[in-house]
Amino acid sequence: MTQAVTQGAHHIGLAVRDLDETQDFFCSILGFRIVGGKPDYPAVFVSDGTILLTLWRVSDPDTAVAFDRTRNVGLHHLALRVANEAILDQIYERVRTHPGVQMEFTPRPINAESVARHFICLIPGGIRLELATPFA
C-alpha cells in the first residue's frame, strides 16, 4: 500500500492514577474542556478542539506501576503542539508551578538544526508530556 489509509489520531487514551488531578491539569493549565465521560469506568473525555483525550483511572492507583520510558513498551510521551515560542513560555510558567508536576527540562531547541522549541514534564496522573512549537 503506497498511501496511508488513516487520517490522524481519533483520540488518545491515557491511564492515570488520579483522574481529578489529571483532568484539572488539562483543563486549568492547558485550556482543554470536558466533552464527556463515563463515571462508572471511571473516565473523562477532554479536548482542546483538535485532539480528544480519554483519561481513565487505573483500577488500583496505590499499586499502579509508573511507566519507565527506558524499560517499558508503551506510550513514551504525549507531545502537544503550541502555536509559537511566546505561548510555549507562558505555558511553561503555568506548568512548572502546578502541584504534582515534575519538570524534566526547561524550554530549549528540539535539536541543533531545528527552530522548534520544547519542554517535557511529568504531569499529575503519571503521564510524560511534551509541549512543542512547530518545526517551521
Short recap of the structure:
The chain has helices at residues 19-29, 85-96, and strands spanning 12-16, 33-38, 43-47, 52-57, 78-81, 102-109, 117-123, 127-132.
**CATH H-level superfamily title:** 2,3-Dihydroxybiphenyl 1,2-Dioxygenase, domain 1
Helix content: 10-25%
Beta-strand segment tally: 8
Structural class given helices, strands, pairing? Answer: alpha/beta
| Shape type | globular
Mean pLDDT score: 92
What is the number of independent domains?
1
User: How would a textbook summarize the main sheet?
Assistant: 4 strands, mixed
Second-tier CATH architecture: Roll
Quote the distance from N terminus to C terminus.
Answer: 29 Å
Q: Which short descriptors sum up this protein?
A:
single chain, 136 residues, alpha/beta, 2,3-Dihydroxybiphenyl 1,2-Dioxygenase, domain 1, 4-stranded mixed β-sheet, 8 strands
